[in-house]
Every structure is written in C-alpha cells, then in structure tokens.
Specification:
Number of helices: 24
Helix content: 40-55%
Distance between the termini: 47 Å
Strand order of the largest sheet: 3-2-6-7-1-8
Structural class: alpha/beta
Strand content: 5-15%
Length: 623
C-alpha cells in the first residue's frame, strides 16, 4: 500500500495533551488549571491522563498528598463516571502489558523509566481493586448526596431517608392531590379558574384549544419548581391592587398632560408614535393593561429644535418609566394565583415526602448551602478536607450556582493545603440551562472575576479536533466565531444582543484545528437547506415521494394524498433517505435528530408510512 502513513488518534493526541499536561517535575502546588476544550478535542483523554499522572508519579507523591483516596474526579452523568473509571483501568492495564502508545503518553508526564511505569501500573491496578471505595469518580449529585448523608442529623434530617433524583412524578402526584380538593365555590376552585383564564390569555389565537389545561399547569409548576430550587429561592407574594390603581391615575394624568402640551405647542404630532396608536386611545377607554406592550422608541412629535420640545420629550420619558413600572406590577399581580397554587401544591408535596421518608436531590443542595451560609460548616467538610486534595471536574460549564456554592469551600480548603484543581469545560456546550446550569461560573473563573487566593487560574486550551472532518469545521467557522471586530463585514444585520451573548459564552473567540486528512479518513459533508412551503413551491423531489408512497400504500389508488399537502420536511426527508439507500448506505448508518421530542413521534410516523425500517432511541433504553 502506498501513500502517507496515518497515525492513530491516540498517538496524535499526545502533542495536544503534552502541552496541556506538563511533566510532573514541573508541577508546583497548589495550582489551578482551567482547560477549555471544544467538542472532539480530547478533553476526556486529558482528564484521564491527569488522573493516571497523579496515580503513578513519585514526584507528585513527594510534593503533595496523592494517594488514591486523595483524588476526586467529578463528572456530570453516571455514564461519564463509569466511562472514566473504565478508561483509567484500561490505561493502567495497557501500560502494564507494554502498549507502546500508552507508555509513550504516560512517560511524557511521569518521570519514570518505561519498565518502572509498567510495574507501578500493576501495583495501582491491584490497589484500586482492593480499595475500590477509594477510587473516587462520581457525579456531582452523588458526591453531594454522600456529604448530606454524613451530615443529615446535624442539618435536621432523619438518618433513614431515601434520596430521589427524579422529582417530576412526585410533583405530578402532589398536583393531582391538589385537584382532588377542588370543589364548587371553594377557594381552590377560584384559584384554579383564575389560572386557567390566565393560561388562556397567554395562548395565541391560532393554538389548539386546551381541552385539558391541567397538563399546561403542571408543566408551569415543574418549570417554576426547577428555577426556584436551583437558586434556593421561594416565591414572594405581594398585594398589588392598590399600587396598580395608583399607577393608573398617574399614567392617566401624565398622558392627558402630554396630549395638552402637544396641542398647545403647535408642534406637528407624529401619528406613527405609539402615543397616538395605542397609549392615548387606550387610556381614554380605561384599558391600561394594553399599555404593557407599548413602544416608546418613536416620540409623539416630529423632530423640532425649538426649546419647548424638550419639555414634551421629558414628559414622554417620564411616561415610559411609569408604564414600565405598571407592566412590572401587572406581571406580578397576573401570576399571584399561579404562586398561590404553587404554594398549596408544595405543602402537599412536603407532607408526602415526610410520609414516604424521601428527600429530593434539590433538598440536599439547599440544606447544605443554607448551613454553610449561616457560617456552620458540617463535620463532613472537615473530614473531606483532610482526605481530598485534588479535584478534577469534567463538563464544568454545566455546574449550577447552588452546586458550586457547596463545592467551592472544599476546593478552597484543598488549595490552601497544597492541593490542586483541574477543571475541564466548554461554555459553548452549555446546554443544561433548563436545569439552571450557569456557564458564567466557568467564565468568571476564566476571566478572573472569581478567584482562589491560594492559586491563581492558569487557562489552557485544546484546539485540535479529532472527531470532525475539515469540511464540518469549516462550516462551523463560517458561522462562528460571532465577533464583530474580526468579522464585522460578514455580520450585517445581526442583533447587538447576539454579540453580547456570544462574548459571554465563548462563541466570539475560539479555534478549531482539523487533523491532516489521511488515507483512512473520508471527506466530511454539511448540507443546509431552507425548505419552501410545498403548496407554493413544490420540491423537485416530489415525484419520487409520490411514487414511493404509492408503492408503500395498501389503500386504493385514488386515496393517495396529493404531494402539495405534505409538509416540506417530510417530502425532503423521505426523498433523501431513499437517495442514500440507492447509493448503498444502510439504515444503520443514518440518524435523524429533531429539536423536540414530540417531533420524533411525527417523523417515526412518516417512516412507518413508507415502510422504512428504523429504531427509535427510546427503544434502546432497557429501563
């Protein structure tokens, strides 16, 4: 076979990780390394090698406590924890059996001859198997659960509780118990009716009728619960009726004064302004709730340099402030019934939790955070402070403020005791905002807004991508980085808010370096299509779709649905799958991803309709 020799990916990762993980002889303690690693750049590889380095290095053992029990790796999911444990053991095993690539990478960061690395690796495997409880690779939730169990009595919980990680079924049960209490003319019925009316007012006219609004209410309750628990907050209720009436009088007075000033001034009114379109007519009708969406961008008079115009514009600005305050109060009053229902459901939920002897994972984080906030440090923190000296944290961008508040004191103590912190993450991959994860925690550590006095942050990056082909990375870099300074000419029309968000999340400044293409790597491909409505512009592949449907359908020939009634996504997807099958690809080589779960069901019905074999992801979950 001729051509260029292709190195394996694990061999090539040595160069990048060699820069990120320095030799043990260069390490000084305490230290804090923040590793920025985009998708596919080998962050798990680097994290595992760091763990191996601390296990095998005699130099590190001389400079700090680095026994197996002194190292804790924290991952985001249980699967990631299992994978990392497996990788550590697999790497040690390969070193013992003399795998050249594994030994080469370890020898770059551990100051030992290769033969000695092999023997130490064997001893560490035996040590892990005999002291497996000290092999600490855990999710942050399981780690916090351990802390809570050890401090339960101190915090005020019974020792025989069960920790629940999935809260939704219990919330649904508590809500169903609340609904059973609803009887005609009861206070619960009045609240429920008000909430249902509010939900109806927030639903667009084109939406389907809500035959069962309780499901929407339950979804709102789940969302509210998640946000409040993540930030350790409880809803505050406030009587707003009097304040709203007072504001209505002030707004009315301000609007009529402004109207009189404009009429007496002789200025030309600007009929395009919301003052004449919405504000003035709605105030005269007494319909103040319509003002909350009014725009104050266009002033009520046309441009004029005369001094009296300044008084009118001043009153206009004062009116904008009053309407803004009214909109805030209106929103507060609008959701008071929702908060009342929420609090009633929470009372039922708390009662059920006590009856069943269960504690939610959110309860653990809150209880520990409240304890620490009061200046009381649980005994377990002192014991862990004497045990764990080195923290390795994966997917750090998915950490929530409450989790970080509980973890930070332990890390701060370890750094003060000549320990280390090694966090890996990518703010661009922060996708767990719905669980209240906050990528700004990582950004604050990176930029120095949050510091550890014992160890200043050292920011490093992994740039080489081992997962994607150059064509895919080129496509990404044509869209991002979203940086006005470097790509201003190509970003015309992008809202300013996007640049601010991009700067916060790291989407304005990052690099992706593809691997040189070898003979064993096929070219990548990215296609982006914006599909037109088939009723106005039938897709070119429509005929193929109609033929495919006709052959798959067992109904009569005249029952075939016209092509123009099909969704454009369906038309294109079915034709594309058929094209790939004709080119020799098998169904197992294709994957269809959708933005929402309910779309998966819809796509599955399309595939069934055309007799295309598929396996939904949910069917692979044996649970």
């Amino acid at each position: 076979m001729t051509g260029k020799t292709v190195e394996s990916s694990s061999k090539r990762k040595k160069d990048d990780n060699g820069r990120v993980l320095e030799p043990d002889t260069n390490l000084k303690f305490p230290h804090f390394i923040l590793l920025k690693a985009s998708a596919g750049t080998g962050k798990t590889h680097a994290l595992t090698l760091r763990f191996i380095q601390f296990l095998l290095s005699p130099v590190i053992a001389e400079r700090t406590k680095a026994d197996l029990r002194n190292i804790l790796a924290i991952t985001f999911t249980r699967n990631a924890a299992k994978e990392m444990k497996s990788r550590v053991l697999e790497w040690l095993k390969k070193c013992y059996f003399g795998d050249p690539q594994s030994l080469e990478q370890v020898s770059q960061v551990v100051n030992l001859p290769r033969e000695e690395i092999k023997q130490v690796a064997r001893l560490k495997i035996e040590e892990i198997l005999s002291r497996y409880a000290d092999f600490q690779v855990e999710t942050i939730d399981s780690f916090m659960a351990t802390i809570f169990r050890s401090s339960a009595i101190d915090i005020g919980y019974p020792p025989d509780f069960e920790i629940v990680f999935e809260t939704a079924p219990y919330l649904e049960y508590a809500f169903s118990r609340f609904l059973r209490q609803v009887t005609q003319d009861s206070s619960e019925a009045r609240l429920l009716l008000q909430v249902m009316e509010d939900i109806g007012s927030m639903t667009s006219d084109t939406s389907a009728f809500l035959w069962d609004p309780t499901q929407t209410m339950l979804r709102h309750l789940n969302d509210l619960y998640g946000k409040l628990e993540a930030f350790n907050r409880q809803p505050a209720r406030r009587e707003t009726k009097k304040d709203l009436l007072d504001l209505q009088e002030k707004i009315k007075e301000k609007v009529l004064t402004l109207d009189r000033l404009i009429n007496d001034s002789g200025y030309l009114p600007n009929l395009r302004s919301s003052f004449y379109k919405t504000i003035l007519p709605e105030v005269k009708r007494g319909n103040f709730n319509s003002l909350k969406d009014a725009s104050f961008k266009t002033p009520p008079i046309k441009d004029d340099d005369r001094p009296a115009a300044g008084e009118i514009l001043k009153k206009w600005a004062e009116l904008a402030d009053l309407v803004g305050e009214y909109a805030w109060l209106y929103a507060l009053s609008f959701f008071q019934p929702h908060l009342s229902v929420y609090q009633l459901v929470m009372k039922i939920l708390e009662r059920h939790k006590k009856e069943q002897g269960i504690v939610f994972i959110e309860d653990l984080n809150k209880a520990i955070a409240n304890y620490i906030h009061e200046g009381i440090v649980p005994d377990i923190y002192f014991r862990l402070g004497e045990k764990i000296y080195h923290y390795l944290i994966d997917e750090f961008q998915d950490t929530s403020p409450l989790q970080w508040a509980n973890l930070r004191p332990l890390i701060e103590n370890s750094l003060a005791e000549q320990g280390s912190l090694f966090i890996v993450g990518d703010t661009k991959q922060a996708i767990y905002g719905f669980r209240e994860a906050d990528y700004r925690i990582m950004k604050g550590l990176e930029t120095g807004q949050e510091v550890f006095p014992s160890a200043p942050v050292e920011v490093r990056s992994l740039k080489r991508n081992y997962r994607s082909q150059p064509e895919i990375l080129d496509f990404v870099t044509r869209i991002f980085p979203l940086n006005k300074a470097t790509r201003g000419g190509n970003l015309i029309g992008v809202p300013e808010e996007y640049f601010r968000i991009a700067a916060e999340s790291g989407l304005d400044d990052f690099e992706c370096e593809p691997l040189p293409r070898g003979e064993d790597r096929q070219p990548g491909y990215v296609g982006l299509e914006i599909l037109a409505d088939p009723r106005s512009t039938p897709p070119a592949a429509g005929e193929a779709l109609a033929d495919q449907k006709a052959s798959a359908s067992s109904s009569s020939e005249g029952a075939t649905t016209p092509e123009n009634d099909e969704p454009p996504e369906k038309v294109r997807l079915i034709n594309l799958i058929q094209e790939l099958l004709d080119r020799g690809y098998s169904p197992s080589e294709m994957a269809i991803l959708t933005y929402r779960n309910n779309t998966v069901t819809e796509v599955a019905s399309w595939l069934n309709e055309y007799k295309l074999p598929f396996i939904p992801f949910s069917s692979l979950d044996i649970r």
